[in-house]
């Protein structure tokens, strides 16, 4: 039997439009007038994350920590859980802040986040992961790429599970889908099922 067919979407989280969904069920929502900064602060408090370093991160990393913490809460995962992320805008928002800061004094606190894969490092530190990770820049959500790369890691034995998905942020507009993929679950890990999860709250 093809090993890929033994992989399932164990858990999923969707963050968009001032709302957080876990397995398609809303667990937290705010007024549509709330801005990104306040949304990230209030979500941290409501979800009781208790991770002080969160407050020093850029918004992309905060979205990653927020999403991964809820996704992995009460889930069994190992230190070799791989991270396979993608987006379209790289680290656009913090890049713009860095460019603006160059007009006066360059801020090291901003510069350190001018690569999108920094979010992978922050998630790895938070969850004590020692695993493969990769961040792809794509024009749009690409389920084929995420499934193919994740399956390669799983089938090669380089990872026992994978957190994969889309974490887009541009001009304070955010669009996040993260999925925990393992050999436990009911939803087969396929392109079609991943696309269906992404389309949820995105149509």
UniProtKB/TrEMBL annotation:
Protein name according to UniProt: 3-oxoacyl-ACP synthase
Organism: Gillisia hiemivivida
Domain of life: Bacteria
